[in-house]
UniProtKB/TrEMBL annotation:
Subcellular location(s) per record: Membrane
Name this polypeptide is given: Interferon induced transmembrane protein 3
Transmembrane segments: 47-69, 100-125
GO biological process: defense response to virus; host-mediated suppression of symbiont invasion; negative regulation of viral genome replication; response to interferon-alpha; response to interferon-beta; response to type II interferon; type I interferon-mediated signaling pathway
Family: Belongs to the CD225/Dispanin family.
Amino acid sequence: MERTRAPGLALPPYEPLVEGLDMENMSRSVVVPVEPPPVQAPPRDHLAWSLCSTLYSNVCCLGFLALVFSVKSRDRKVLGDYSGALSYGSTAKYLNITALLLNIFFIILIIALIASGTITVVNLLHHQQQQGDHPFYGPT
C-alpha cells in the first residue's frame, strides 16, 4: 500500500518520495530542532557542613581545613570552573567526614573513660567500707 501526498508538502526524512513528486516541488525550509545542552547541576561546596565542623568539632584543625576547601570550591563555582569546584568540594567533604568520625570516636572514648572511672571509684569506696578501715558515712 503506497501513500500519496499532494505536491508541495514536506515529507519526513525517513519516507521515500512518492512517484511523480520531484525535489523542485518540495518545500525548501527545514526546521532543525536545537536542544540546549543539558544543564549540569553545580557541584556542592559543603560550606555549611564545614562551618559546623569548624565551630563545633575542630579535631586536629580538620574542620578549618574543610572550611578553606569549601570556600575555594565556592570561588571556583562562581568563576565557572566546575571541575575545580568539584575537586575542592570533594576534598572538603572527605575532611568533614574524617572530622566527624574522629569526633564520634573521641566522644565514645570520653564516655568510656568517665564510666570506667566512676565504676572504679564506686568499687574502691565499697571495698573501703567493707574493710572498715575508714568508714564512709556519705554526705552530711
